[in-house]
Amino acid sequence: MTIVFTDIKGFTERTSKADREFVLRLREKHDSLLKPIVRQYGGYLVKTIGDAFLLTFESPTNALLCALMMQDRLREYNLTAAPLEKIEIRVAINTGEVSVTDGDILGEPVNVASRVEHITEANEVWFTEATYLAMNKQEVPNSLVGEFRLKGVPEALKVYRVVQDMNSEQFKQVVATQQQKIADINAQSNSIPSIRIIMLIVAICIGASIGVIQTWRSATNPFLLEARNAMETGQALPALLASGKLLEEAPNDPEGLEIMRKSLDSAVRQAVSGKDLPKARQLLDKNRQKFSFLGPLPDLEAHVITHEARKMAFSGDRAGAEQLVTRLADEQKGHVGTLEEIALFYGETGYWWNKTIRFYHELALTDPIRWAGDPKFLKEMDFFLHQVEPDEGFDEVRSFIASYCFDHFQKILVEAIATKDLDNRALRWNAMAIFKLKGIPMDPQPIYLAEILDSPGSVDSGLLKEAAGFFLASGATASIPNPIDRFPLFSTQLLATDSLSMRLAGGPFLKPLEGLLCRSLSDVASFDQRVNSFVLLKEKNALLPEQSWCYHATNVIDWESVIGVDNAFRWNLIESLQFLASNAVPAEGQLKPAFRPDLEAVKNALAKIHAASAKYGPEAASHGHEELQKLWEGIGEGARGAEQMLYKR
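Request: output the structure for the sequence above.
Response:
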C-alpha cells in the first residue's frame, strides 16, 4: 500500500493570529480543492490531522499523479487568491506493508512517510525509494533529491521528487494528460447519477461506521483525544502537553508524532510572534531534548535563531547578530527553509544589503518559478536594480532576473535607458546588462553619454572606463551634443594630463567643449574645472594670451582655494602672480565681458595677499619652517609686481 501525508505550509503560524472563521474557511477551501482529486485517483482519506491529510492508494503511480495534480490545482487557485488565503502544501509518499485496524493504518511505512514529510519543501512532492521502485517511471517525471538520515530509521534513505518544471515539455504533457483524464472521469460520473447516489450512500454508511469505531478507539486514549481537540481549536500548548504524554506511552504513534510536531511548531512561533524569545527557545530545546525522535527541526531552529539575531541587531549588537546568522547558514547549508529565514532576516534588518541579495538569490534558485513571482523577492530585486551597478559584481543575479523576472521589470528597464540623472544610474547600466543577456539589441551611446556628461561615478569607475573607452576607440562623435555646457569629470578633482577624463575631453569631446573650457578659465566658483580646463587647453596649444591672463587673474581672486590645495600646488599662486606682474591687462576688445575678471576684485585680492604674506611669512620663520617662509616671501614679492602692473593702466 502507498501512504501519502500532506500538510499546509505555515498553517499554524498563519492561523495562530486569525479568528476561528478564517481557519474554518481556509480548511474548507483546502478540502474542496483537494478531496475531489483524491477520489478521482482512487485514494482513501484515512484521517485528517489539523490541516494534514493521511491518505492511502493501492497504486503508487496513482498516488504520485494525484499529488502532482493537487499541486497543479493549488497553483491555479493561488494565481487569483488573496495573499493570506493562498494555500501551499507539501506531499510525502512511501510504499510498504501496513496494518489496517479500525479504520486506521499502522506500521513502519507510515512512520517513514511522516518523517519524509518533515523534510519535504513547500509545493513539492517527495517520495521514498520504495515508491520509486514500485512506480511507473514513464508516467511521472522524477529526479533524486539525495540521501537522508531520519530519526527512527536505521539506514540512510534515498528520497526522490516529482519534477514540476513548467518549461519542460514532458511535464506539460503529463499535466495535460491528467487534466483530460479528470475531465473524462467527471463527464462519466455526471452521466450516471443514480450510481453516484448509491455510492455516496454506501460511503456515508462506511464513513459513519469508521467514525464510530475511531471515536471509540480515541476514547481509549484520553491524551490523544485531548491533543486532537486542542489542535482543532488552535490551542498549541495544551496540544503539545497532551501529545507529549501520549508519546511517552506510545513513542511511535504516527498521529501523536504529527500533532507533537505541529503543536510545537505553532507554540514556538506564537512565542516568537509575541516577542517572548526565551520562551520560544525553552520550548524548542526542552521538547527536542525530551523527544529525540523529533529530529533537528531545522525550519523551527532557523526561525528562532533569526529572530534572536534580529533582537541583537536592533539592540546595537550587529556583529553578534551577523555571527549568529553566519553560523546558522553554515550549519544548515542549502536547507530551503533556513535560506528563507536568513533572507528575511537580512531584508528586514537592512544592514547588509549584499547578503540580502545573496541569500534571496540562493533561495530563488531552489524554485525559480515560485520566487520570480514573490512580492518580497521582487522588492529586493528592484532595490538591486536601482542601487547595485554592474561593476560591483552579482552577475548571477542579473542572469536570474533576465531568465525569470524580465517581464516584471521590462517596463522600468526600458524607461531607464532614456534617463540621465544620478538616481537612475545603476538602473540604466543594469538595463543594458540585462538586455545583452536577453539578446535584445540596443544602442549603448545614450547610457555612455549620461555616464560622462550627467551622472558620472568615480573617475576610477569601471563603468566610466567602459563609456570613455567606447568613444576613444570608435571616434564616434555624431551622438555627442554640440556645444556641451557641462563636463562634471573636470569638477571633481585635479586631473593628470594622461588621465582618462583628460584624454576624453581632449579627444572626441574637445570641439563641443571649447566654449565651456574658455568660460571656465575665469570661473571663480569652480576651482577644479578652471585648473583642468587651463591644463587641457595649454596641452593642446589652444590658449590665447588674453585667456591665460584671465586664468591667472581668477587664480589671484580665488587665492585662498589655490593656497588650500596642497603643498605642491600652492606654488602655482606665485606663478599666477608673476604672470600678472609681467603681462599687461588685455585691451577691452580682446575679451568678451562675460569672460573678463573684475579688476577691482583682483586688486582687493592682492591687498589681502599682501596682508597674509606679512603675517604668515615671519610666523613661519619664527617656527623654523624655511620652505613655508620661502613660499610666503615669494607670494608677497609676486603680489607687489602684479600690483605695479595693474596700476600702470
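The two ends are 113 Å apart (CA to CA).
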